[in-house]
Structures are given as structure tokens and as C-alpha cells.
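Need residues for this backbone.
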């Protein structure tokens, strides 16, 4: 059994959104076209309350990109994005969600951010995704989405930590690249953790995997 985990294809991460990832919209057709190759489709949403501690506006005098200590751990500050039940948090209209079995939300606790789709940034709380996969005996997971150097990377590192055979569909990801070299470093880190990097056409050739 395998699963495709589609990370944060939300309006705020797409061109024109509050925290736009450059060319982020280009991954939507990749996500749509690959769906029939998988047994199980899951998606995640960044899902913040308005008072979330990752928003620069919630810290007087601070700006997006500044780093602060938030409840004991370092936090990069971002523009207000993906506020629960707003258009910015909605899935992109062109993203086909009709076959998504379950959506996992992250970043709900105002005191801690959650880049990973498995745990918050201090590993204090689970999203439930790891248990969901294990209950269904799914060992092989494939990830794509936004952004490569944050939510995809930290999800991949946690997935490896939890023992999943973890694949990243690289042409289905785009990154933020806050600092130059961030994307290459993210790819290196995921490789060193034992993740397998591939392109969507590697999957299209081989029929239903797993
Ligand atoms: Zn966020």
C-alpha cells in the first residue's frame, strides 16, 4: 500500500497569495495527474488561528523574516497567511480534491508553528498523520507540494524518523528560498535522511505503484 501526501496547495502559497511560493501553481497539474497512481490520497493544510505566533504582525516592531523565540524555540516570522476558514487557507480552486481521503491540519496552536505534516516544530503534538498511516499498514509514502524547503522538508525528515519509505516527487515541489542555497541544502538534508528523490514521470511509466 502506498499513499500520496499533497502538502499545502493553498491559495496563500500560490502566486498572488500572502506567502506566495514562486511558480507554486505549476505543481497543481502534477498533483492532479499523479492521483490515479496511488491507493490513498491525503492532503495537508496550514491552518492558523488569527493570533498565531508565526505572524510578524502579532509581534510589535517585528517584520516578516525576523527571528524570535516563541515559547522556547526559534521562530521565523511570516506574513499573515492561511488563517482558518479564509480564502487564503482554501485549497487552490484547480487542485482536484475529490478523491482526497483525509485532510490533516497543522499550525493550529498559536504558540508553536508546524512545518511538518506529522509534528509541530518542537515535536510536542502530533497531527495524527503518522498514526493514520500506520493503522492502515502504509509503509511507502510519496510527498509533493509547497514549500520544498519548509513543510515538505520537515515532513520528509519526520517521515524518515518514523520509519516510512519516503519518496519526494521533485517536480511536484517548489521552494521559498529565503536564503540563497536553501533549496539545495533542503534536498541534501532529505537525501542524507534516506529519502528517495524522483520525478513524476518515473511514476507515470510504471503503472500503479505498491
Ligand atoms: Zn504557516
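Answer:
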Amino acid at each position: 500500500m502506498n499513499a500520496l501526501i499533497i502538502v499545502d496547495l493553498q491559495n496563500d502559497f500560490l502566486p498572488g497569495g500572502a506567502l506566495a511560493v514562486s511558480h507554486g501553481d505549476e505543481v497543481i497539474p502534477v498533483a492532479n495527474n499523479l492521483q490515479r497512481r496511488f491507493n490513498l490520497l491525503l492532503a495537508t493544510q496550514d491552518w492558523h488561528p488569527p493570533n498565531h505566533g508565526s505572524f510578524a504582525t502579532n509581534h510589535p516592531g517585528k517584520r516578516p523574516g525576523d527571528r524570535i523565540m516563541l515559547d522556547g524555540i526559534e521562530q521565523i516570522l511570516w506574513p499573515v497567511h492561511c488563517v482558518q476558514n479564509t480564502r487564503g487557507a482554501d485549497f487552490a480552486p484547480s487542485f482536484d480534491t475529490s478523491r482526497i481521503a483525509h485532510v490533516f491540519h497543522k499550525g493550529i496552536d498559536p504558540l508553536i508553528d508546524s512545518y511538518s505534516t506529522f509534528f509541530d516544530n518542537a515535536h510536542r503534538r502530533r497531527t495524527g498523520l503518522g498514526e493514520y498511516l500506520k493503522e492502515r499498514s502504509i509503509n511507502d509514502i510519496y510527498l509533493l507540494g509547497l514549500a520544498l524547503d519548509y513543510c515538505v522538508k520537515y515532513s520528509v525528515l519526520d517521515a524518515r524518523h518514523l520509519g516510512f519509505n519516503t519518496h519526494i516527487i521533485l517536480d511536484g515541489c517548489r521552494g521559498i528560498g529565503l536564503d540563497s542555497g536553501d533549496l539545495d541544502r533542503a534536498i541534501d538534508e532529505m537525501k542524507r535522511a534516506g529519502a528517495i528523490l524522483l520525478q513524476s514521470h518515473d511514476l507515470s511509466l510504471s503503472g500503479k505503484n505498491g
